[in-house]
Design brief:
With 186 residues, the chain is of the alpha/beta class. It has helices spanning 8-13, 35-51, 91-106, 158-171, and strands spanning 18-21, 24-30, 57-59, 81-82, 87-88, 113-119, 135-140, 176-177. Helix 2 packs across helix 3 (91-106).
Length: 186
Amino acid sequence: NLEFAISKEFRAKHPEIKAIIGGKPNDLRLKWSSPLVAQELARVTLDLLQKNPYLGSYSLSPEDGMNWDESDDTKLDAGDFDTANQITSITDRLMVLCNRVAKKVRAQHPDVLFRMLAYAQYTRPPVREKLDPSIVPVIAPIAYSRYHPMTDDTVPDNKALRHIVTGWGKMSKMTAVYFYAFNLAE
């Protein structure tokens, strides 16, 4: 929902919010570090809540994929290495955006919850950023085995998966898990 909530018209008016991927502005991805992106996502969410005041939660999850801003957003990364994906975790940069949006919306709608997938390159819990109390991480362990219990240390990356589950659990008052019907980890 994150990318699709911001209109093409708004993007055309503010090209500086487009993520730079492969050295070029990307028409889908956004710069999560941009306060303008957070402001517009909050505005869109508040408009939606105005139309539907009984809406209990809203998604701040990015579109699927592994290509993200290579310019400004990288300054928000905490240097946490994700062993399962063999890449630097970008959870802290996503949390900066989610926290900004949640804070603005929660000021007018204190009971609304914001779901955000803990998925792919942002599966690991943040290192530096705290979670706004309205954020509910939905752990989506696509790169981890689901055929064995998390406590089985003979399974590669199970220690990392336990770190993810306990880490998010300590940071938020609610967590959820998105289970898959298939297993990519084996």
